From TrEMBL:
Residues 154-156 are annotated as: G5. Gene3D superfamilies: 3.30.300.20, P-loop containing nucleotide triphosphate hydrolases. Residues 13-20 are annotated as: G1. It is found in: Cytoplasm; Cell membrane. This is GTPase Era. Residues 60-63 are annotated as: G3. SUPFAM superfamilies: P-loop containing nucleoside triphosphate hydrolases (SSF52540), Prokaryotic type KH domain (KH-domain type II) (SSF54814). It comes from Thermohalobaculum xanthum. Residues 39-43 are annotated as: G2. It is a peripheral membrane protein. It comes from the Bacteria. It holds the Pfam family KH_2. Residues 206-283 form the KH type-2 domain. CDD domains: Era, KH-II_Era.
Amino acid sequence: MSATRCGFVALIGEPNAGKSTLLNAMVGAKVSIVTHKVQTTRTRIRGVALEGGAQIVFVDTPGLFQPRRRLDRAMVASAWAGVEDADAVVLMVEAQRGVTEGVKAILEALESHVRPGKPVALAINKIDRVKRETLLALTADLNDRRAFERTFLISAQKGHGVADLKRWLAESLPEGPWLYPEDQIADLPLRMLAAEITREKLTLRLHQELPYQLTVETENWEERKDGSARIEQVVYVARDGHKGIVLGNKGATIKAVGAEARAEISKLIERPCHLFLTVRVRPNWLDEPERYREMGLDFSDGN
Ligand SMILES: Nc1nc2c(ncn2[C@@H]2O[C@H](COP(=O)(O)OP(=O)(O)OP(=O)(O)O)[C@@H](O)[C@H]2O)c(=O)[nH]1
Ligand SMILES: [Mg+2]
């Protein structure tokens, strides 16, 4: 029997580059939430895939950007920590946006975070949105800026190029025993996954800054005798006015969010669930260590 391989692959890039979409495509299941808005992912999320004899532990990370708030700083620190632990790194760049100031800043900071000798691949994503000439020029430009081990042209959403990238990553990982049981695809606790699903539905329905000013926590999870789960979640918002918006006219918004989240959580846990959402105003939630812990972030990273 040939030796097994195993290791961590950090997916990094600007917000909205398609990291979580790629993670889900690699794993073949929805492990990390996806929205059209920036800064959707707030902490490192692992998803496990098998390829040949290799177990690839993909690490989805928050987008890298110039942080302003404490939460932003903690998210960016969490992403770089993912790179520091990685056996291989995939830098994702959006094809249609190209070499932005943000991409330049990432390239500048990259070297001080990648472990010596670890491969970094470039994945130009969303190739379904641009012409072939654009891709060739962008590939050349980015490879002039840094010597990437390999460049992959992919569409995480449509699946183009994803299998090639996966194969290459599997071969790049060090030999070693698998870290997870063969059938495990994620390691986020269910209560956190369930909170993320609700946050995704809220983010999709709310506009402008509001998604960035709320967080969702699962406060209570009860297995019922009839085989269903009773789940209570709290949506923390910073202002009274936000509470009204989250609730919506006669509670219409929160009701719709609850219905969508319940359906997806039921699918995830493969049994019926009763979801109860409460909106709580907490002016300082963005400065509370407990909230960061619940999100999987290090509060002191935000200093
Ligand atoms: N057209 C197209 N859209 C894509 C592709 N990959 C991802 N998207 C879309 O891009 C948006 C952002 O995707 P995410 O996977 O949430 O991006 P992310 O990098 O995880 O973003 P953050 O978590 O905010 O850093 C979503 O609307 C996706 O559906 C792709 O290959 N083609
Ligand atoms: Mg994401």
